[in-house]
Amino acid sequence: MKTFRGGVIGAVAAVLGLLFVPCARAQEEPAVKPPPLPVHTIEGVGGGGITPMAYLVNPRDDEYVFGKPAASLSYVNLGHKNLDSIAVTETLFGRIELGYAANRFGLGTLPDDIRDATPYDIRRDDVWLHHFNVRALLVKENTYLGGIALPAITAGVHFKYNDGIADINRRLDNALTGIGYDRDNGEDYTLTATKTFAKGFGRPLIATAGLRLSEAANLGYLGFGDTYRASFEGNVAYLLTDRILLAYEVRQKTSPYGEIPGLIGDEDTWQALDFVLLLNKHTTLVAAWTPLGTLANTDENGGWFLQLKHEF
């Protein structure tokens, strides 16, 4: 795995070296726990359902080494396909978020369509995509520079491994290689900025913009190419009441593959409309509508998303 040997290790070491701070002894728990936001993306970082925010999940003050973990279960019904995600995060020093997510991606009608259109049988109905994430808070929100209050700025490295796509490509006699598939693993690099406007329309309004460098095809569910492409991702969230948050997310897609008519189509921009209910100080419930456009052989514009997340 050529990208794994140098990219992840070097990037993680650089982030840790830049952000290491001395830690004091453990102190008493803070009297007031902040709301259990952000929620988890399906890839296992803090954000909405499909895009990150610069805020880390369940952090404690800088003098603590360990925060408390958070875990979530998500289900996405895409119409013809489906996705299950289990994710956990842990924030260190109040500045470094470690995350892991396992995604089972159900291929839906794709195996049948391949059998109908070709002499091949891929002999599987799903693939598993594993995400290993490190994010570092480079700039705290409202740090002043030249009299300007900066947003929170977070940088991330995201190693991904697809358990299944290499076997599918082999059974297709390397047909995916012919349209750009290179390997079953890759790394994404993200830079995310988030700012809360306390009096936006009378209630807190949270705006996020981010840049992603990736070689992934459909987040990695269809494998990885050999050229990095830049894409935009962002979200706007509004705290309607103390317990209800509404959000809109958008994630640009840049396909590294060519097309196989009827089987592998060009990628479309992903969107989501989120309804987040804060059940209590530790738990959130998320429901979302997720129009994702073309996903391999089908159009998935009627999907919905559910997530239950708990911060310990």
What's the quick description here?
The chain is mainly beta and 312 residues long. 11% of the residues lie in helices and 46% in strands.
Any overview of this molecule?
The structure is a single chain. The strands form four sheets. This protein has a twelve-stranded antiparallel barrel with strand order 3-4-5-6-9-10-11-12-13-14-15-18. It has a two-stranded antiparallel sheet with strand order 1-2. Strands 7-8 form a two-stranded antiparallel ribbon. Mean pLDDT is 90; it is low at 1-31. Strand 3 and strand 4 form a beta hairpin. The radius of gyration is 20 Å and the shape is elongated. It has a single domain (2-19, 35-311), classed as Porin (Beta Barrel). The protein is built from three helices and 18 strands. It has 312 residues and is mostly beta strands.
Approximate shape: elongated
Considering the protein shown, what is the CATH homologous superfamily? Answer: monomeric porin ompg
CATH class: Mainly Beta
Cα-atom Rg, whole angstroms? 20 Å
**Proportion of strand residues:** over 45%
> Main beta sheet, described?
12 strands, antiparallel, barrel
User: What is the arithmetic mean of pLDDT?
Assistant: 90
